Amino acid sequence: MARKHSKHDPDEDLHREEDAPVVAALCWLCGRSTGKSIVWHHPVPKSRGGRDVVPMHPICQETLIANFTNSELQRYGTDVEGLLANPNLRKFVDWVANKDPDFTATTAKKRR
Question: Which keywords does the record carry (predicted)?
Answer without folding.
Answer: Endonuclease, Hydrolase, Nuclease
